[in-house]
């Protein structure tokens, strides 16, 4: 029987897969539906061009999501996605500004989901990617040491 310590080795990689999946699919979705996505970003009324903000968002989601998924510079990728999650929660899910109760309720859920994802990413920032991450891979050496 496999002990808990062996099973627990897989928990961080499962967490990385689950956390990164939404960002990878969302980033790719932005690229595949560019015009619609630009229109959505424009609804926030931000002072920068919507296409520039959208490009930055897509790059952050795809690059950060890949870093977390592979465990390559995972702390940096997780920090970027934590910040991104908090920023998008504040700018796009501002439920407190909505008059319609049903729309406010939906946006409140989206807001807190973003905050919760940021919390998950901050766990990676604090504790690293865990086993099965490129950050923890042993370097490959082409040099063989002579037996003494």
Structure notes:
- This protein has one domain.
- Helices cover 70% and strands 0% of the residues.
- It contains six helices and no strands.
- The protein is globular, with a radius of gyration of 19 Å.
Largest sheet: none
Distance separating the two termini: 39 Å
Task: Determine the number of helices (DSSP H or I, runs of at least 4 residues).
Answer: 6
How many individual domains? 1
Short characterization:
With 148 residues, this protein is mainly α. It has helices at 4-8, 11-32, 34-42, 50-70, 74-92, 101-127.
Element layout with pairings:
Elements: H1 4-8, H2 11-32, H3 34-42, H4 50-70, H5 74-92, H6 101-127
Notable traits:
6 helices; 148 residues; 0% strand; mainly alpha
